[in-house]
Design goal:
Length: 271
Amino acid sequence: MAKLNPTIAPVDPVWDRIRREAEEAIAAEPLMGGLIHSGVLHHDSFARALSYRIALKLSSGEMSEQILREIADHAHASEPDLGAAARADLVAVFERDPACHRLMQPLLYFKGYQALQSYRLGHWLWQEGRRDLAYFVQMRVSEAFGVDIHPAARIGRGIMIDHAHSIVIGETAVVGDNVSMLHSVTLGGTGKEEEDRHPKIGNGVLIGAGAKVLGNIHIGHCSRIAAGSVVLSDVPPCKTVAGVPAKIVGEAGCDQPSVSMDHLLQAVPQA
């Protein structure tokens, strides 16, 4: 069996497209050249560009950009799943957010995406036993982006956090794959208990703006939580819940609510 030529560069369609978009953006707006060169074109891979962006955003007088970048580079080199999850999240934003017209945008401009990738770095540190550094990343994500995700929380791939103001996700929360949530969502506890106390969100769930999901409850796959709802009990798969406290008001309306991003409740036929 012939060996692969080690000089052949790996194919990365996502990164190739981002670089093309970056060059087109500079041609259209030369004043953005410095930012786009430093954020995209200066780097030889998507992982390094992402590490640079995270380090730039999270650095402070307490922790330099250089140190944070070395930590992020090491994390991506040690755990390829970080890059795979970052690509899945990027594509999710591109496909679901009507305000996103280029793959480059979340990487450079969208704080929901940047906060989520920063959380992923903190989660890697947590799993490596580097708890204080993970807490530092959590603190800086909260200060820089207004998003507070405990580094122990478990979050799947293909996640879109739109607008991302005031997102809170607690320590024992679990979020499945292909979930979409809007601003001011809380996945929180209900008291001072210290064990498993946060929600478990299934795959394909859509969580509307301002929704609060509280306690160790399960939200079934492909369900919808209406904006402003307070969910205190389990939700079966493929249902829509709304209200305070939330109640089932109908079916989810489609196979993948998180992808369709349809937040409207269907009118209930009158008897």
